Amino acid sequence: MSMWWSLRLRREAASVPLARRLLVGAMETAGVDPDVAFDLSLALTEACANAVEHGGAAAGDDYRVTAHFDGDRCHIEVIDSGPGFAARTPPDPTHPPATAPPLTDTGAEGGRGLFLIAELSDHVDIRDRPGRGAVVSFDKILKWREDAPLQAA
């Protein structure tokens, strides 16, 4: 069985816990293992926080969150309307321009969100959207509780 939902959220701090609660509620209802649900909810929190902080020039800009459960996999995508990763990444004259920052822990106080998403997920894709914006998408293989109503057959 599969299910999906999509949200269009204002780029403000209050939207982050809302998206997280909706994801957690969907996973609890579907019967996803609590440890997997925690990892996905934390990764989503980081992706949404990035969209809120970096995802647009105007206060009225919004962002979109989509979650798709299909069989034994969950796919989450967060799309913003900001300048994209290339505009946020300082140019390095020794390397060609990148469209996304590295997925490593730099040791800096901030900037660990993408690293956390990569560590909590099985697959991550971070890219600029054609035109304007950034896309952070990630997948995780689901584990199910014994009594899971949506458990993959």
* Strand ordering within the main sheet: 1-2-3-5-4
- Sheet with most strands: 5 strands, antiparallel
Radius of gyration from the CA trace? 16 Å
The structural class is: alpha+beta
Total beta-strand segments: 5
Shape: elongated
Query: What do the pLDDT scores average to?
Result: 84
Task: Provide the β-strand percentage band.
Answer: 25-35%
Task: Give the helix proportion (percent range).
Answer: 25-40%
In DSSP terms (H or I, runs of 4 or more residues), the helix count works out at: 4
Beginning-to-end CA distance, first to last residue = 8 Å
Strand and helix order: EHHEEHHEE
Residue runs with pLDDT of under 50 for 5 or more positions: 91-99
Structure overview:
The chain has 153 residues and is α+β, with helices and mostly antiparallel strands. Helices cover 32% and strands 26% of the residues. It has 4 helices and 5 strands; from the N terminus they run βααββααββ. The protein has a 5-stranded antiparallel sheet with strand order 1-2-3-5-4, with helices on one face. Helix 1 runs antiparallel to helix 2. It is elongated, with a radius of gyration of 16 Å. The N and C termini lie close together (8 Å). Mean pLDDT is 84; it is low at 91-99.
Summarize the structure.
By secondary structure, the protein is α+β, with helices and mostly antiparallel strands.
List the helices and strands and how they pair.
Blueprint: E1 2-10, H1 15-30, H2 34-54, E2 62-70, E3 73-80, H3 85-88, H4 113-120, E4 123-128, E5 134-141
